[in-house]
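Tip: read the tokens left to right.
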């Protein structure tokens, strides 16, 4: 590599470490957001069920 091998391999290693770090950060954030979304969905389910409670059925009168 004409004397530049140490620089090239150090730069390659640094780039690889950065890529792995970004991959880990993205994966971690994705898991946190998925857990937060599930918590919000779990919290909103009972409210939605109360809001959409159907009226009780009334028997029809025979005419």
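Filled-in amino acids:
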């Amino acid at each position: 590599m004409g004397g530049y091998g140490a620089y090239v391999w150090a730069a390659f290693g640094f780039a690889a470490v950065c890529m792995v770090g970004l991959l880990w950060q993205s994966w971690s954030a994705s898991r946190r957001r998925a857990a937060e979304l599930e918590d919000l969905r779990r919290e909103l389910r009972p409210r939605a069920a109360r809001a959409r409670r159907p009226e009780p059925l009334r028997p029809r009168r025979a005419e």
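The chain has a mean pLDDT of 87. The helical segments are 5-51.
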